[in-house]
């Protein structure tokens, strides 16, 4: 006899004993008088959360005694206070130590639906549930033949009760569906080790009609399992031990409800309007508590500004009169010819000229937006990090214009590579601090900026330069950059009478220019989106900043956000390398991580060599010298063209985002191509002003 | 996705542990004696894995009640120059997270309450459940998470519940009352109150704000509140110990094992002697607090 058979036999015996005292006819009269059942289905599915069915559970055959629960009504009220959508009350007395008496108390205590959970196999038990006011009962497919299952399901539905039909296998799910189940409980625990097996859940829940409510029914203990099930598509979860045995029952339910809401909020569409804190499983706020107040303040002020037409007016005015927006969209026919020669496809290529912005890169877009927020917050001091120097220059520029005190942190290696930008920042009145800790590159500059911010947060705004970091930075910086894609769309239409591009290519370090160029097209499936990371000497060399290629990045938390991360076996951040300082970063914006996982953007990389060849190609075919960062996107356009060719395009319209101009890179390029002697190169490197060293 | 689930010997998933908190037991005892706890910090693996075990033992033998064993991290944003340098030395000298459980055992065997302080990515990468299991098995009491706020701690809350480990979250002087409540509600063991805005490091003077912060954190529901960041002398320890449930000292202890250049390690014997002396000095300060 299996455990289930034994439980059913016991339940039938106990029901028969009750029937001897209260015959079915009397029970039916009681049922008629019972308050009408709540429609539990309405509580079990919602767009903004994962409803939690919290269980009153004293014991189970597998785990033995769990909790005394002297006051089931009180426990039910605690669950309700924590946000439970329904209560499950066990009435099986032999092994689960439940009773109908428990059920009556629970039903009387709460306003949410209550499930009678028992081994129900006959009419008497169904009527009994209704007579006790049940809104909702459990039927176990494995305990019933097809005819009985259908009969009991119909009876319960006639009595206006909701039925949770428990299944374990694909076959049982099919039987439940055939019998007319509207709410299916899926038990996706791996029976060998009792772990929640999300793949098994996915396999089981596949092809279930959308109007069937899917309840993950087993193995949900805390936020971890709830999140797993929710991401796999479960509509609701049933939780027993995890809430029944918690020290604080209300808090335990609250945590589950929050976790469910978080999953739902992390996957909203349209993609172009999706806001943080979470992008799928990525993003969040992995920062010291000391920064939470400042991040909350920033979020509040930013949301106010977003809703304030005056803010947008002022930003638009400055973009036009100060930055020089719109930046042109330039057709590149000679470069297109080069693609044709090499790839065998004849595209029209357009360059989005962020290099023509004031300060020579896209960074001014978010620097300006954030600086206006600084004014709004009443702060007086701005700190920033910089890699290539473009973000530092943009920050120093807007701070000079708005009269804000500015300090820029720059890794020592970057500062040497970009000595002229160091001089520019100083010329603009900013203090440049050369960071000599860690690897002395962008990430170390960010660490130092974060330390400064933690210390001076009351007066200081951290003007972060990319779509990384804690919420709200990824959303906010994207919003300030999305003008790039909006202009591309408009200019293609107005200037070239092209409805939409077939492809948009951008380089991805943290990912600000890429998300800016792509945001307007995220929900337009006709537009293929390509992001190019810094391949350095190639992923196999270990000297690169490729986060998305197989065998490179792993899931991790870095500088405030969960995303892909280049890390060692120990979880320490790996050294990254790229010829371009602006792409030389161990992690990537959380929105990109999400777009990668859902397959909306194709991420690939360009090596140093490919990027430098493209740098020369564009310079010599179009007379436009791109930043080395942007040259990765230019190099990528050949790969994108090949991909488009494979997809059957013959004359695709390809837009490449030229995120910045290459003047700053002439020392590197001159050396690379041998236009400068070693002596001249060396002379250029020492011209760079040394920063104030930081220990 | 769940990468590992803790199971009982019969193969059932672990339930909530309900094991009493070792840290709370320590505070209960000290409250009866009307004295604050002395919590000392040292990174594991500093200056190298072997010496760090001696150093941890030395701290307990010379008066530290609970030890905050730091896990060295490549990007320690909450730490000032001294701990950054120590962490870097540890990493250069082959520190590995696997070894920290040995350090936990060392502290427990010496009679101290072993706590670990780790930036979150290290624990996440090791596997939260796996870390909790190994930490519990080594006799660990709780984990201090400087860059993990309760709002992001779902996986850790679950694992710590299953393994009966303390969750020590931080508060800072500009935390709102609402934030203090969230932290107090999710904390187990004690709340770590940062004495001021900023990173770790020694300070000549302490502002009056920590006392207010301790008050506010208690009002928000915290049982035990300890103060750290910036405490480096016996006098400061006394002052803080007068109102806090525990005094946390880091950089001042770490400093004793660093050479005068603040980059390399001091001679081991000399370093341990200085560490013992500094520990005693601070322990005396803590004992004189009330």
From TrEMBL, chain A:
Q: Which segments constitute the Tryptophan synthase beta chain-like PALP domain?
A: 324-656
Q: Which CDD domains match?
A: IGPS, Trp-synth_B
Q: Which reaction does this chain catalyze?
A: (1S,2R)-1-C-(indol-3-yl)glycerol 3-phosphate + L-serine = D-glyceraldehyde 3-phosphate + L-tryptophan + H2O; 1-(2-carboxyphenylamino)-1-deoxy-D-ribulose 5-phosphate + H(+) = (1S,2R)-1-C-(indol-3-yl)glycerol 3-phosphate + CO2 + H2O
Q: Transport among the record's keywords? A: no
Q: Which UniProt keywords apply?
A: Amino-acid biosynthesis, Aromatic amino acid biosynthesis, Decarboxylase, Lyase, Pyridoxal phosphate, Tryptophan biosynthesis
Family indicated by similarity: Belongs to the TrpB family. Belongs to the TrpC family.
Q: What is its EC number?
A: 4.1.1.48, 4.2.1.20
GO molecular function terms listed in the Swiss-Prot or TrEMBL record: indole-3-glycerol-phosphate synthase activity; tryptophan synthase activity
Put simply, this protein is called: Multifunctional fusion protein
Q: Which domain of life is it from?
A: Bacteria
Extract the InterPro entries matched here.
Answer: Aldolase_TIM, Indole-3-glycerol_P_synth_dom, Indole-3-GlycerolPSynthase_CS, RibuloseP-bd_barrel, Trp_synth_b_CS, Trp_synth_beta, Trp_synth_beta/beta-like, TrpB-like_PALP
According to the record's subunit comment, the protein's assembly and interactions are:
Tetramer of two alpha and two beta chains.
Q: Sorted alphabetically, which HAMAP family does this protein's record hold?
A: IGPS_B, Trp_synth_beta
Please state what class of enzyme this protein is.
Answer: lyase
Give the source lineage, highest ranks first. Answer: Bacteria, Bacillati, Actinomycetota, Actinomycetes, Bifidobacteriales
Keyword Protein biosynthesis annotated: no
Q: Which organism is it from?
A: Bifidobacterium oedipodis
Q: Name one GO cellular component term.
A: cytoplasm
Cofactor(s) of this protein: pyridoxal 5'-phosphate
Ranges where the Indole-3-glycerol phosphate synthase domain occurs: 4-256
Question: Main role?
Answer: The beta subunit is responsible for the synthesis of L-tryptophan from indole and L-serine.
At what positions is N6-(pyridoxal phosphate)lysine found?
363
Q: In which pathway does it act?
A: Amino-acid biosynthesis; L-tryptophan biosynthesis; L-tryptophan from chorismate: step 4/5; Amino-acid biosynthesis; L-tryptophan biosynthesis; L-tryptophan from chorismate: step 5/5
* NCBIfam families, alphabetized: PRK00278.1-1, PRK00278.2-4, PRK13802.1, trpB
TrEMBL record, chain B:
Q: Which PANTHER family match?
A: TRYPTOPHAN SYNTHASE ALPHA CHAIN, CHLOROPLASTIC (PTHR43406:SF1), TRYPTOPHAN SYNTHASE, ALPHA CHAIN (PTHR43406)
Its family remark reads: Belongs to the TrpA family.
A GO cellular component annotation here is: cytosol
**Which EC number(s) does the record attach to this protein?**
4.2.1.20
**Reaction(s) this enzyme catalyzes, per UniProt:** (1S,2R)-1-C-(indol-3-yl)glycerol 3-phosphate + L-serine = D-glyceraldehyde 3-phosphate + L-tryptophan + H2O
Listed A to Z, the keywords are: Amino-acid biosynthesis, Aromatic amino acid biosynthesis, Lyase, Tryptophan biosynthesis
Active-site residues are 68, 79
Identify a single GO molecular function assigned to this protein: tryptophan synthase activity
Q: Which Pfam families match?
A: Trp_syntA (PF00290)
SUPFAM superfamilies from the UniProt entry? Ribulose-phoshate binding barrel
Free-text function comment from the UniProt entry:
The alpha subunit is responsible for the aldol cleavage of indoleglycerol phosphate to indole and glyceraldehyde 3-phosphate.
The pathway entry for this protein reads as: Amino-acid biosynthesis; L-tryptophan biosynthesis; L-tryptophan from chorismate: step 5/5
Quaternary state and partners of this protein? Tetramer of two alpha and two beta chains.
Q: What is this protein called?
A: Tryptophan synthase alpha chain
What is the uppermost EC class here?
lyase
Q: Which CDD domains match?
A: Tryptophan_synthase_alpha (cd04724)
Q: Which organism is this protein's natural source?
A: Bifidobacterium oedipodis
